[in-house]
Design a protein that fits this description.
heterodimer; A: mainly alpha; MetI-like fold; 12 helices; 70% helix; B: mainly alpha; 2 domains; 1% strand
Chain lengths: 301, 276
């Protein structure tokens, strides 16, 4: 807790704290942070009982089942685990999933920031409608999301394209479901950003592009990073929107989640758990990283 | 400023790109689904809704969502109070862990629940089944899967508000002799009621739409464990106009509920408000 450590990073990270009260709907938001223990008290008997009940439910619902995945994954020993992960079909699925997730996250970094920028800095009729549109992918059931994309990019597309059962379909589905993440993490930060600083930079002779690169972008970087992490996480775990859209063809459009499902349906639980454990570990890494970022930001806020 | 024209051009270009992107990715496709649902008029839609399988699927979805939301609300309020107002060992870890369900593939969620609660091979499932409680391939499993995926939503709404309101009022109430229940009912609950409402609406929307996790734990048998989203999948993959219209109708209703939930939340939530 030494305030002198890492001051430079702290300054760069600081703007994220503005995202605390983000206006977004639901998941894609900056994580909440806990207060320093100032106002918190130690457990009373009643709250202790409540904690016990809450933890029991949390264990039954989340902790024990997730542990079961890891245990099942190791059930066949290291060799079986390795074999399950390196079977050509699984490798192909992993490669496709991670590759498309990276690609989509890249597009989101640019488009998400642009959308947030337009929503905050631009004024035009129908902007409030766009606010709702941004959140639709988050609220729409994933199976419906697949159907929705199929209607414009599937066999009876009014555009005359048919991308169903191709890798483009996987790309589109990922793009659709991850749309809100970066927009909703960047938007509140942009809103809090003081325009005076930009004006000062401009009055000192900086060009628009220079101001953007040297003043705005560094302030947005932490928000973009956490939005990108969430978007990547969401993409690699996506399933529902692909069911009707991508055809789930092995070696071609089969993603990791579909591979896990077919292992479950084929009663190969150890194989399923092995691949699931990889997704779990990636999710945990992202969560821990975001927690560290938000804690570091909180410390200097 | 010599670059005003260039700046205006940039602004227009950016606006056009953003609106075009959202139009092709979200607006047009969503509108097409609505158009396809009603492509043959209203009668086939109403007929689709009269099918017993459809009625059953929506009833099952509603009841599972209801229980998941009730559980998540009680659990969410409780755990948020514990996380914000008390210190105990493992608090930080718990705070990070409650967000986990949002980042996990629904398929992994389903698999995890099957591994523990399956009557045949699960850690606890065999015992529970002997005690008369079937979880997997039955409504309890559907409720658990739904509760799992929507668990963090209430917590994420309440925790920031609890932090912001602080403890002064609660302490004042306590010092004036109010019991903890009175303090909660008179001070804490009114302060978090909007956040709680957002959280509940969000959980409900998420619960009604859960697909992957429910697919694994429920088995998706029509008239027994088939929820609305599973019905959409099954009907879309079957041949025939009636099945197709049924799939689109169910999807349209699910989409309508989702969009309505969004509109409710967007209009209730103070615009750009950083305060609750």
């Amino acid at each position: 807790m030494t305030p002198s450590a890492g001051t430079v990073e702290a300054q760069q990270l600081a703007p994220t704290s503005a995202a605390e009260g983000a206006t977004s709907v639901g998941g894609p938001r900056n994580r909440h942070r806990l207060p320093r223990a100032k106002s918190a008290t130690t457990l009373t008997p009643i709250s202790g009982l409540g904690l016990g009940i809450a933890l029991t439910w949390f264990s039954l619902l989340v902790l024990i089942p997730l542990t079961a995945v890891l245990v099942q994954a190791s059930a066949g020993g290291w060799q079986a685990y390795w074999d399950a992960l390196t079977s050509p079909q699984t490798l192909a699925a992993l490669k496709l999933t991670v590759g498309q997730a990276v690609l989509v996250t890249g597009v989101n970094i640019i488009m998400g920031t642009a959308i947030a920028w337009v929503l905050v800095r631009d004024q035009f009729v129908g902007k409030r409608l766009l606010e709702v549109v941004i959140d639709i992918p988050f609220a729409l059931p994933t199976i419906v999301a697949g159907l929705v994309l199929l209607s414009l990019y599937g066999p009876s597309s009014p555009l005359g394209v048919n991308w169903a059962n191709t890798r483009i379909a996987v790309f589109l589905a990922f793009l659709f479901v991850t749309l809100p993440f970066i927009v909703r993490t960047v938007q509140p930060v942009l809103l809090e950003l003081e325009q005076e600083v930009e004006e000062a930079a401009a009055s000192l002779g900086a060009r628009r592009s220079t101001t953007f690169r040297l003043v705005i972008l560094p302030s947005l970087a932490p928000a973009i990073t956490s939005g990108a992490a969430l978007s990547f996480c969401r993409a690699i775990s996506e399933y529902g929107s692909l069911v009707l859209l991508s055809g789930n063809l092995p070696y071609s459009t089969e993603v990791a989640s579909v591979r896990i499902l077919s292992s479950v349906e084929g009663d190969k639980l150890t194989e399923a758990a092995a691949l699931a454990s990889i997704l779990l570990v990636v999710a945990l890494i992202v969560i821990i990283t975001l927690d560290l970022i938000s804690r570091r930001v909180a410390r200097y806020a | 400023m010599h670059d005003t024209a260039a700046r205006r051009l940039t602004r227009w270009a950016l606006r056009l790109i953003v609106v075009g992107y959202l139009f092709f990715l979200v607006i047009w496709p969503v509108a097409l689904v609505a158009a396809k649902t009603f492509s043959n008029g209203l009668a086939p839609v109403i007929n689709a809704l009269r099918q017993p399988e459809v009625i059953f699927a929506f009833e099952l979805t509603l009841s599972a969502a209801w229980w998941a939301v009730v559980i998540n609300t009680i659990f969410g309020v409780g755990i948020s109070l514990l996380l914000v107002r008390y210190t105990f060992p493992g608090r930080r870890a718990l705070n990070a862990m409650v967000d986990v369900p949002l980042s996990i593939s629904p398929i992994v969620v389903g698999l995890a629940l099957v591994l523990v609660y399956s009557g045949r091979t699960g850690w606890l499932g065999g015992g529970l089944e002997r005690a008369g409680l079937q979880v997997i391939y039955a409504p309890p499993g559907i409720i658990m899967a739904t509760a799992f995926v929507s668990m963090p939503l209430v917590i994420r709404e309440i925790v920031p508000v609890l932090q912001e309101i602080g403890t002064e009022q609660e302490q004042a109430a306590r010092s004036l002799g109010a019991s903890s229940l009175q303090t909660f009912g008179r001070i804490t609950l009114p302060a978090i009621r909007w956040a709680l409402l957002y959280g509940v609406v969000l959980s409900l929307a998420r619960s009604l739409g859960e697909f992957g996790a429910v697919k694994i734990v429920s088995g998706g048998v029509a008239m027994r464990t088939q929820t609305a989203t599973l019905l959409v999948e099954e009907r879309y993959q079957q041949f025939g106009v009636v099945n197709s219209i049924t799939a689109y109708t169910a999807a349209f209703i699910l989409a309508l509920i989702a969009v309505l939930a969004l509109i409710i939340i967007t209009s209730l939530r103070p615009s750009k408000g950083l305060t609750p």
